[in-house]
């Protein structure tokens, strides 16, 4: 950690010297000034982390200096020192943002402790701010990409639901962005400066999940050597996201229902229930109504959870978002990997648009991340995409196969397929031959054949005019 900078402001040279010596001995970078004017000038030139400031001084007094320092930068911590301690000056100093207040003659050991504590708190404040900015970057609604009408409706719903305390149930296949939405709801809620805690209900055994969610007392079960608060307590005042809630056992479903109804948690091995104030959000990629029919999910819990429902469409049903999501991920990974990829070729984009994305946005993100790693620049080409994506995208979809009509000959079908593929590859014969699984020579021969047929008046319509 960088050496912390302390500025001492005192009109008594003896105090300046004493404090400078002691604090240098503690490893701080120490400077001193005998009056307010000089202190402010020194602070302006090189912002200190902490100022030790006398109150009674000729010229500007300590309270004025404190006010000006805080105006210069609220990050500067100030500890006031005075021989003329009065309650009023202490109150004024604290109101103006002083971190602490010590009487002269200063007890050096006490001063050292107060300095460590003040700098520690300042560091925590800075870390907290940085973390909050990061969370804001990740979970701000502006960072969720989408312009498909279904996504625009979801954005509206987030804005409406976020300020309320309602529970939210988010349906959607894996990787559609459920966690992102839950994070955005928390981030735009009045609870945003309190924790957002996530628990995956499918990842661990029932016993572990129970203690993970509701906590346990020391000795509650074999191996419980220490008491554990549980995620609900950690999320107190904030929000909790229960991922894959359908995977909870009946016992835990009952306990969760109690949290939602009574706002109390029962720790494992605990004697008394503990009050909690947590907004609950849950995700599922199973149909909970079907689970209720099968007796696997409690109906009363379903109604408690399902106050607001957000149903996420899979990516294949909002393919119009693929180009902007792609741009978003190109920018993201350019920054992360310090690259300067401008974008993606038309051919590669067509491939992304044709693919069915069973892993949804997460899979697209991984595919772009991989492409950025492999792409020497400036544009992502088809060769930089995952082979699985390229091969599957090249295969005709079930839809197209259904369009094949009985009565057409194999030769006609072959011709149709060859021209469709050429159209798809923008008449790149090498690529078309690859996609068709034939040699370039065979493709050339076929095209010559079709040309001769056409010249003899046997060719049919749309293909015959293509410049291949
Ligand atoms: N609309 C979007 N805009 C930007 N990034 C997105 C979007 N949707 C999803 N992502 C990104 O895709 C990845 C997967 O999203 P997320 O974790 O929210 O999905 P999920 O539905 O919770 O998945 P799972 O069911 O597997 O838990 C994340 O990295 C997320 O940032
Ligand atoms: Mg998730």
Molecular structure report:
There is one protein chain. This protein is α/β, with parallel strands linked by helices. The protein has four domains: 5-130, Response regulator (Rossmann fold, 3-Layer(aba) Sandwich); 141-311, P-loop containing nucleotide triphosphate hydrolases (Rossmann fold, 3-Layer(aba) Sandwich); 316-394, Helicase, Ruva Protein, domain 3 (Orthogonal Bundle); 405-464, Arc Repressor Mutant, subunit A, CATH 1.10.10.60. Helices cover 50% and strands 12% of the residues. It contains 21 helices and 14 strands. The chain has a five-stranded parallel sheet with strand order 2-1-3-4-5, with helices on both faces. It has a five-stranded parallel sheet with strand order 7-8-11-6-12. Strand 1 (5-9), helix 1 and strand 2 form a beta-alpha-beta unit. Helix 2 (36-45) runs parallel beside helix 3. The longest helix is centred in the first third of the chain and has 32 residues, at 108-139. Mean pLDDT is 87; it is low at 459-468. The chain binds adenosine-5'-triphosphate and magnesium ion. Adenosine-5'-triphosphate binds next to helix 7 and helix 15.
In short:
This protein has 468 residues and is α/β, with parallel strands linked by helices. The chain has helices spanning 13-25, 36-45, 62-72, 87-95, 108-139, 149-161, 178-187, 206-214, 231-234, 250-262, 288-293, 299-305, 322-337, 346-354, 360-374, 387-394, 398-402, 410-424, 429-436, 440-455, 461-464; strands at residues 5-9, 29-33, 50-54, 77-82, 100-103, 168-171, 196-200, 239-243, 264-265, 274-275, 279-284, 308-311, 343-344, 379-380. A five-stranded parallel beta sheet has the order 2-1-3-4-5, sandwiched between helices. A five-stranded parallel beta sheet has the order 7-8-11-6-12. A two-stranded antiparallel ribbon has the order 9-10.
